Amino acid sequence: MLFLLALTSLHSRSAQNQCNDINDCRRLFDIVWGCLVTIFLCIWVSVHPNIPPPCPEAPKGIGLGFWHWWLIGSNRPFLQRLKLMTVALIAPEMILGFAARQFQMAHYLSQDHGVSLTHGFFIVMGGFVDADGHPIVTQKQLRVDSVVGQICAVDKSDIEDKSKGDLFSKAIALCQGLWFIAQCIARRAQSLPLTELEVATLAFTAINAMTWLLWLRKPLDVRNPIKLSAHTTPSNHVLSDPYPADLSGLERFGFLLVNTYQQDEYDPFSSQFVPTFWCTAYNDRDELPVLSSFITLGGQFFCGAIFGAIHFAAWGAPFPSVVEMWLWRIGTLVLVALPILFLLLVIGITILPSAQGKSPALVIVIFYSMARCILLVLPLSTLRSLPLAAFADVNWSVYIPHL
């Protein structure tokens, strides 16, 4: 869609908007392509999914069941990664909060059980399973005799060897992100305007860079867990429905904010994998240090406000219409203010448990979602009428002689 938009805009512009000197100008296609590549590389490198569900065996014969397995069953790891990438594209601050809570839990497990941070991440992501194939992800399971000992017996290098991340791909994404940021800074230094798409891309780059740092020690794209010989299922345990349970859409959306599941929502003894947005069990959440939990939660919403604040860079930019200008400004203010209001609401509910916060929280989520949709559409719609100065390229010879 973006490529069609770029080609249509190029065809519709008059001859005076075209560059006469290719060394001093850039095309609309160059702007769109640079932003697309930067967003894709940042999201691709920053997203670290949990252990995916096991792929079912291929059915015999080439029928409807075979094609369903070929499209869905055999591509479960890719579909899980695609789900995370979609959320990272629509709401990168949500993925940042998810990464922060996983980092907090991994660090706590590494300190509490004397394992490395890589081991802690591998536990949180469902990387260790017991003899029955159930993921070992709760403190109750970890306190079973010999479980921690068997986890410590797994060498850190063996876990890192299962990771699909490599230094080369990460270096390419890092260089592309730094190059894009340098271009944005140089354009503002030379009084050249940034397009709304470039401002939105800059916000994505900043948030995804922080996500990548939080997940730096988390193994990437691990397909199969490590099986231990210990049994962690209690003899008197009553199995509940496997994930996903019968939850409403609002409750599922809420897991993006808290990432904690109760037993009736997810039971590891009834499943062979953890949910896509799994971080910790509800009972284990109470064991986390209060200050650390508050810093993690506050950091998520503070970074969400920073994500919105970056959009202020286009506050005075020329827009095709007055309506689009005010939609951008109002959407930016909403993205900055509502995360802070939501944090204050959470603090108020924590201090006053009797306070009713479900309705205000729902109103905040609705308005925040509307603002995000607006700031996803406007960077594309404004491409139809960019100022001529937006096509002027940065004069790098000012900073690098003889370039």
TrEMBL record:
<protein>
    <submittedName>
        <fullName>Uncharacterized protein</fullName>
    </submittedName>
</protein>
<keyword id="KW-0732">Signal</keyword>
<feature type="signal peptide">
    <location>
        <begin position="1"/>
        <end position="15"/>
    </location>
</feature>
<feature type="transmembrane region" description="Helical">
    <location>
        <begin position="326"/>
        <end position="349"/>
    </location>
</feature>
<keyword id="KW-0472">Membrane</keyword>
<feature type="transmembrane region" description="Helical">
    <location>
        <begin position="294"/>
        <end position="314"/>
    </location>
</feature>
<keyword id="KW-0812">Transmembrane</keyword>
<feature type="transmembrane region" description="Helical">
    <location>
        <begin position="361"/>
        <end position="381"/>
    </location>
</feature>
<feature type="transmembrane region" description="Helical">
    <location>
        <begin position="199"/>
        <end position="216"/>
    </location>
</feature>
<keyword id="KW-1133">Transmembrane helix</keyword>
